[in-house]
């Protein structure tokens, strides 16, 4: 190698290695991942032995898994992974039918959670009551609009 190529290769290798390093203080954004069927305890309590497949599908929705080898069984699977903490919550629920296509039994681990608790993001804000205008204040006309200052016009012209 020539005299100038060796330092150039060393700098290139150093820069390439620097691209693979991520400092610990840099946190990338990860989304919450929700998959499957959201089943609530209220939905499960509506199930009664002897209901048809159509009635069960109306109450619980379409099953996540229908196995061709176990046609008398429907599986409802739910999985939620928090993007912030990485914690995984999973639930499994199975519905069994008899030979006539009627509901025979159910099994699984469904809590009494509501759909809003499972799908709504956590509330990070506060509700502020700014009050309401009285009838007298609502009838009063608004003050005239002031012209923007020189600095504001300059910032608007620049696109800020």
The tally of strands reads 5
What portion of residues belong to β-strands? 15-25%
Tertiary shape? flat
H and E order: HEHHEEEEHHH
Low-confidence stretches: 111-115
CATH first level of one domain: Alpha Beta
Number of H- or I-type helical stretches: 6
> N- to C-terminal separation?
53 Å
- Share of helix, binned: 25-40%
CATH topology of one domain: Beta-lactamase Inhibitory Protein, Chain:B, domain 1
Tell me, rounded to a whole number, the average pLDDT. Answer: 80
CATH architecture of one domain: 2-Layer Sandwich
Largest sheet: 5 strands, antiparallel
Going by helix content, strand content and strand pairing, the class is: alpha+beta
């Amino acid at each position: 190698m020539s005299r100038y190529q060796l330092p150039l290769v060393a700098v290139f290798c150093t820069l390439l290695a620097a691209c693979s390093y991520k400092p610990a203080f840099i946190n990338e954004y990860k989304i919450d991942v929700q998959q499957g069927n959201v089943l609530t305890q209220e939905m499960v309590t509506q199930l009664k032995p002897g209901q048809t497949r159509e009635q069960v599908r109306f109450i619980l929705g379409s099953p996540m898994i229908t196995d061709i080898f176990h046609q008398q069984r429907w599986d409802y699977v739910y999985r939620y992974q928090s993007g912030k903490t990485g914690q995984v919550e999973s639930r499994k629920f199975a519905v069994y039918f008899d030979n006539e296509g009627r509901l025979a039994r159910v099994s699984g681990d469904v809590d009494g959670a509501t759909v809003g608790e499972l799908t709504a993001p956590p509330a990070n804000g506060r509700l502020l009551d700014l009050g309401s205008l009285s009838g007298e204040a609502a009838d009063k006309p608004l003050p005239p609009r002031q012209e923007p200052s020189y600095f504001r016009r300059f910032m608007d012209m620049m696109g800020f």
